[in-house]
Design brief:
Two copies of one chain form a homodimer. Chain A is mainly α. The first copy, chain A, has twelve helices and two strands. Chain A has a domain of about 180 residues: Farnesyl Diphosphate Synthase (Orthogonal Bundle).
Chain lengths: ~250, ~250
């Protein structure tokens, strides 16, 4: 059983070895976005689910990286002046600020298609189908966010953050051919937990609506439900329990 | 054997019946972009190749529509202020001008993923893989165009226009399980022909570099090579010959 750090190293190694298609300048922008670090939570989660169900991480890696590329695509487009207008990301200029807007639009597009290329490296379309559905959900969430047209924050976050967390779990199960059982509930609660803690750290979203104390309570409840979903699985979920705890207590 | 007009009607019907995923406002923008008309050359070509190889058009339709959605995605993003800055498209406000920039970015993203959902409706990943490779080529061509960094116009157009024409042929063959033979050459020459005539009609691109007479000559040569590729195929290519002729002589 590999530790979270070992799984993260696997992810970083696989991402570093990717050779995106395209002219050098476009590839440079794609690599810039991908090399920006970040916690790699989604692909690590994906690999950890694979390990818990007895799969070889090497087999799950393309799916895990595909999820990370979709996440990276969404950041590149979200940061654009017309959307969130963020000129920094993880302590560096965001992709559009480093290159320009047109290159960032195209680099985001390329990341999204590269994600599908990875998901399509499997013999069946199952992983890519799951990824497509989750990505559409995420784009819908981003639309609700940008246009401030969500009915409620929980529904918005379930799309914008939750769908890709759920997909991180689901694609690993597809690769392993495992039965879903309580895995979907685990993915859903983990996505909710991630967002509650994000809002606590940033002092926005749920914290603005419900206050800090209530948001903390909801985060802890999501963590408990995630652990309960794991407890019902007939699998070695020790690394996944560690992921739940580190997401619940993270400070960055 | 269906005529080009009958094939176009099939395409329009299938596009009209698509139900994109997402919040109503986003779906409205996606539909706006899709409903803008246009010649539907790529999906008609795809269906005509299918018919020539004896396939049921209904079977090829999802792949044909997937190609059209990728084309539509590329127009929505290309029209953005940061790229070509076109505020009209086919006599109507372009998607960003009708909605706004942020919605156009997200609608383009959604169109791209919907294209993959259609391509993934087949039992094998072959159609979606072909589409992913072609789309990356097209994005690379758009990058060369936007950054004015192409070494030569032929190489640029081969990516920006050509790859999707080639894919229109290739995905039909994938659906039918047909051997490639001279089909790839046909797709390639048709893409070149389309672009030469586009430049003649717009008075730009090749016309600016080589003049009108030379561009006309190159268009005619591409048409001849496309017809020669068809002549070597053991298939009823009458509709496809008509498409070559109509592309060579089109005035809009």
């Amino acid at each position: 059983m590999r530790s979270v750090d070992e799984l993260r190293e696997l992810v970083e190694g696989a991402l570093a070895e990717l050779t995106p298609a395209g002219p050098p300048g476009l590839v440079e922008a794609v690599r810039y976005a991908l090399d920006g670090g970040g916690k790699r939570i989604r692909p690590v989660l994906c690999l950890a689910v694979g390990e818990a169900t007895g799969a070889d991480p090497e087999e799950v890696l393309p799916a895990a990286c595909a999820v990370e590329l979709v996440h990276t695509f969404s950041l590149v487009h979200d940061d654009l002046p017309a959307l969130d207008d963020d000129d920094t990301r993880r302590g560096r200029p965001s992709t559009w600020a480093q290159f320009d807007e047109s290159v960032a639009v195209l680099a985001g597009d390329a990341l999204l298609v590269e994600a599908f290329r990875l998901a399509l490296s499997y013999a069946t379309p199952a992983v890519a189908r799951e990824l497509a559905d989750a990505t559409l959900g995420m784009i819908g969430g981003q639309y609700l966010d940008v246009t401030a047209s969500a009915d409620d924050l929980v529904a918005l976050n379930r799309l914008k953050t939750g769908r890709l967390f759920e997909a991180s779990v689901a694609v690993a199960l597809e690769v392993c051919g495992s039965e879903p059982r309580t895995w979907p509930a685990f993915g859903r609660e983990l996505g909710a937990l991630f967002q509650f803690v994000d809002d606590l750290l940033d002092g926005d979203g749920h914290v603005l609506v419900h206050g800090e104390e209530e948001t903390r309570r909801q985060a802890d409840e999501a963590a408990e439900r995630a652990l309960a979903a794991l407890a019902e699985l007939n699998a070695d979920t020790s690394v996944l329990r560690g992921i739940v705890e580190s997401l619940a207590t993270r400070t960055a």
